[in-house]
Amino acid sequence: MIKLIASDMDGTLLNSKKKINNEFYTILKQLKEDNIIFTAISGRDIFSLKKVFKDIDEDIVFAANNGNYIEYKGKVIFENYIQKDKLKNIAIVVRKFFKHNTLYCGKDIIYSESKVAKFIGILWGLNIKYTKDIMKIKDNIIKVTVFGKPSDINKNREKLKILNNEFMVTISGRFSIDICRYGGNKKNGIEIIKNKFNIKYDETMVFGDNMNDLEMMASAYYSFAMENAKDKVKSNARFIAKSNDDNGVVEAIKEVALVNEKAKL
């Protein structure tokens, strides 16, 4: 019996137009009636996640910033901030290669040491605060994101390899790379949620498409990579769902989770 369903957002639950299929809202009501917990787990910050589900956020566990900040019904379940001394190590590297293309994500505010990034954020719908020196702010940072052209993503990942031994450095989108505290990935986030609600491995269902979903595939028996997922994610998943443009998450939920619930009747 499925008790927990966790889905990535971009490239997974959201289609190519960044929209959720309307059928999902009907499915979400059914999940609630069956006491199945739905989790939105994403590299997005908490405000971006809540904006997507603005009318129904009380029914969802939000695992933002790759599972490093988890909230349910307005209460924080988990926070995993980058230590200040470690943040300095990240800042040294990203200032060298990505000064105008770096975002420092706190719980409530996103910062940048570049006014260029601040203006780009406006185009993305992000409220970014400029700071001359990230080390002088009092806020805690959960995640650092660098971005660039999609064609440069692998080259940019190579520039950050010096951070591999201290941090989770993961491609999270077509043009973005996330840097989180070591061990701070979506799999860890799922494990925290499972422990919180006393849910087992074989009662869990997860969906993802990109490299920041890779570790999460090992957190559930019902691990689904989207048809449009990266090959490595597919090879680490037990099942393949239809693409994000074919409502793959909802179709798999209907076929597995809700079918199992009907079978009990």
From TrEMBL:
GO terms for molecular function: magnesium ion binding; phosphatase activity. GO terms for cellular component: cytosol. PROSITE patterns: COF_1, COF_2. Pfam families: Hydrolase_3 (PF08282). It comes from the Bacteria. This is Possible sugar-phosphatase. It comes from Romboutsia hominis. The lineage of its organism: Bacteria, Bacillati, Bacillota, Clostridia, Peptostreptococcales.
